[in-house]
Amino acid sequence: MVPLFVFFRSLSSAREQIQLQNETNATQAEIENLLASGQAIAAKFAAVEWLARKPKHPQAHWLLAKAHYGLGELVEAKRVFQALIKIAPDWEFSINPWLERIESEIQASGPRVVK
């Protein structure tokens, strides 16, 4: 038989995990809504705040990179995507198309020949 205090401790831990997951879901939804509504600056700051609380959370990095991209901050978006690959290598398949797109946009916006 499990002692009663062990049962309540595990119940409390389960509640904390559910609360943390609900907060994560709410934060993610908030940032996604900001991006979808064209509020990339607000999304960027919300993602930075999320990363301050959870520095290794892959979804926070993903949304920050997308906010940078939405603002035309291509070098920063590339840097965040590259950092995300280091944190979550299993995301590489999703990230590589973004890195390719960013790299081609950086190349396209490079110096032009003046005639």
List key phrases describing it.
mainly alpha; 79% helix
The biggest sheet, with number of strands, parallel, antiparallel or mixed sense and barrel status, is: none
Quaternary structure type: single chain
* Contiguous helical run count: 5
General shape: elongated
- Please tally the β strands and state the result: 0
Whole-number radius of gyration?
19 Å
Mean pLDDT: 87
Tell me the fraction of residues in β-strands, as a range: under 5%
Span from first to last CA?
85 Å
In sequence order, what are the helices and strands, one letter per element?
A: HHHHH
**Percentage of residues assigned to helices:** over 70%
Briefly note the structural class of the backbone.
mainly alpha
Low-confidence stretches: none
Word description of this protein:
This protein is 79% helix and 0% strand. It is built from five helices and no strands. The termini are far apart. The relative contact order is 0.08. The mean pLDDT is 87.
Topology:
Blueprint: H1 4-36, H2 40-53, H3 58-70, H4 74-87, H5 92-108
Helix pairs in contact: 1-2, 1-3, 2-3, 3-4, 4-5
